[in-house]
Amino acid sequence: MGRLARNTNMDIEKESTTFDYSKRAQWLRAAVLGANDGLVSTASLMMGVGAVKHDVKAMFISGFAGMVAGACSMFIGEFVSVYSQYDIEMAQMERGSGEIEKEKLPSPIQAAVASAIAFSVGAVVPLLAAAFVKEYRLRVIVVVVAVTVALVVFGWLGALLGKAPALKSSARVLFGGWLAMAVTFGLTKLIGLPGL
């Protein structure tokens, strides 16, 4: 009997100290993807514009417009997505037990605001990197270096919060970001050629 009680207490302690990292999935997905999207899409947009317009104002304004548009898009997209999930869960609870535990349901506004803020945080990195560098080639290098560092940090942070392998996560985020910037720069440069 004493052994049974001791084993039960150990099981309860184990359950209380074991954290289910999959429960972080919703807010972690919104935060990490939002920041990564803000970083990659804004940097890619700035690189694309920078491929044909070498002045700092054009790069900065395009990046700023991309940040505002992207944050609004993330807000609306996340709000609609989570509100749809909210409606489905509410309908299922009403059909089921009849008891609705509203505090367990996701908040559409919270998710939308978190996504918009995360996107903006990511977008600020290339904007700040480009804002104070007048010379074109140096500006492009500074943006690429700043975005590279941020991509590695975002990948590592996502892995740390989700208890996933840090190297794989960082490498995946880094190469994806580089590819997006390279494709945008290359295609825009091609379209901007005088003969086309």
UniProtKB/TrEMBL annotation:
<feature type="transmembrane region" description="Helical">
    <location>
        <begin position="173"/>
        <end position="193"/>
    </location>
</feature>
<feature type="transmembrane region" description="Helical">
    <location>
        <begin position="138"/>
        <end position="161"/>
    </location>
</feature>
<keyword id="KW-0472">Membrane</keyword>
<keyword id="KW-0813">Transport</keyword>
<protein>
    <recommendedName>
        <fullName>Vacuolar iron transporter</fullName>
    </recommendedName>
</protein>
<keyword id="KW-0408">Iron</keyword>
<feature type="transmembrane region" description="Helical">
    <location>
        <begin position="58"/>
        <end position="83"/>
    </location>
</feature>
<keyword id="KW-0410">Iron transport</keyword>
<dbReference type="GO" id="GO:0005774">
    <property type="term" value="C:vacuolar membrane"/>
</dbReference>
<dbReference type="GO" id="GO:0140315">
    <property type="term" value="F:iron ion sequestering activity"/>
</dbReference>
<comment type="function">
    <text>Vacuolar Fe(2+) uptake transporter.</text>
</comment>
<dbReference type="GO" id="GO:0005381">
    <property type="term" value="F:iron ion transmembrane transporter activity"/>
</dbReference>
<comment type="similarity">
    <text>Belongs to the CCC1 family.</text>
</comment>
<keyword id="KW-0812">Transmembrane</keyword>
<keyword id="KW-0926">Vacuole</keyword>
<keyword id="KW-0406">Ion transport</keyword>
<dbReference type="InterPro" id="IPR008217">
    <property type="entry name" value="Ccc1_fam"/>
</dbReference>
<keyword id="KW-1133">Transmembrane helix</keyword>
<feature type="transmembrane region" description="Helical">
    <location>
        <begin position="111"/>
        <end position="132"/>
    </location>
</feature>
<dbReference type="Pfam" id="PF01988">
    <property type="entry name" value="VIT1"/>
</dbReference>
